[in-house]
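Quick illustration for those who missed Monday's session on complexes.
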Amino acid sequence: MSTTAAGVKTEKETGTLEVRDTRTGATYEMPILPRGTEGDVAVRGMDLRQIKVESGEFGTMSYDPAFMNTASCMSAITYIDGEAGILRYRGYPIEQIAEGSTFLETAWLLRNGELPTRQEYDKWENDIRYHTYVHENIRKFLEGFRYDAHPMSMLCSTVAAMSSFYPDAKDIHDPENRNIQIIRLLAKIPTLAAFAFRHIRGMPFIYPDNDLGYVENFLSMLNRMTEPRYEPRPSFVKALEVLFILHADHEQNASTTAVRAVGSTQVDPFSAIAAGVAALFGPLHGGANEQVLRMIQEIGHVKNVPALIDEVKDGKKRLMGFGHRVYKSYDPRARIVKQLADEVFKETGVDSDLEIALELERIALSDDYFVSRKLYPNVDFYTGLIYRSMGFPTEFFTVLFAVARTAGWLSQWEEMLMDKEQKIARPRQIYIGHGERKYASLL
Ligand code: ACO
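Prediction with acetyl coenzyme *A bound:
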């Protein structure tokens, strides 16, 4: 075993890669990096740079649009085996965490690497509970949004705006300072999300109730009306707790990559997390849960499912909630979500949209188009249906995802800062535009 600059334990070097350049006949040796815990193998991209025809040349780069085969960091947080459908946080299988943990315990685990002791957990929970209030000016700021503003736009802007309320947050190299900003972000993001929800509904903002747990308080800020104390349904609290755990981290996905890239400039964490919220908003990422429900509503009836499947197979549409860059077998989160959906629907009732979803899944799992491309339902396929049956409007689904993913973004951001190998993220390009030409105005 050896330890990398990121503090990650890896096995010893496994050998070298020999590369022969047919242009020059030269042979180059590149050390294969120490294997990751689960056997991941890589060579350093920078080792390609030595491959040149002329000594003055820049050297060879690797070309990898969309980072299909590029490891951007060494990380000890989350492990995914996409072929086997495995997801683990800090070594613990997601199924076990979803069964036994709470969201805040999971957030601690992701950040600290170990499960908290009772004392650590109580302090962590208490700290987060007492930082849930936001500055009154944020309220005013939110009131400036139109009634039909998308809550993800509101969330993204208010998270970014928080950096102006906490200018001390830019002191990212001080561990104490990082700690308080992490607590603030985890504590305040449900408040910002709930305020955005109330705004689009034209309802008065409900302030946090610090006697309540994380999820209960969130539900109270979303739903409380005139009652002195909101009593959420225990099944909804349980469902949201599990959904938050399932969404808490997913290694180097698009939004986490955005957080790491923006964070690598050494900006404050509010600005870095706002970048994550922006990336998550996209329909190919966190926005997919919203799109799944829109797609189901467009289908309208089970009898129209085959026609949609034909359109998808003709390349006219994508089946939202299906497919994943990493999972090439069943997304383990989707399996848990499906079970959860059964429990929630027992209380709220099964509707025609669920029938359509089940039929879509049935056809897609038996159709060669989907089978041959290894397109399985992902976590977003059923989450929208659960959220809707809990009374959330469609445009709020991705916000729920963002609240949960904040735990992962923060852990990944801090790991990136601690990693001595990381620098400002700055990819190269292969320039394919004009060569030099003389300016001559056409005006
Ligand atoms: N419906 C139909 N066909 C699909 C789908 C889909 N949902 N996803 C992929 N394909 C097809 C592609 O057309 C392609 O077919 P081809 O080989 O004939 O050209 C093949 O499967 C491979 O697809 P890629 O686009 O190369 O896969 P990639 O890994 O780049 O995309 C992604 C992954 C973005 C998730 C994609 O599957 C997709 O768009 N899914 C729908 C959106 C979605 O559900 N996103 C949520 C992801 S989970 C999350 O972010 C929380």
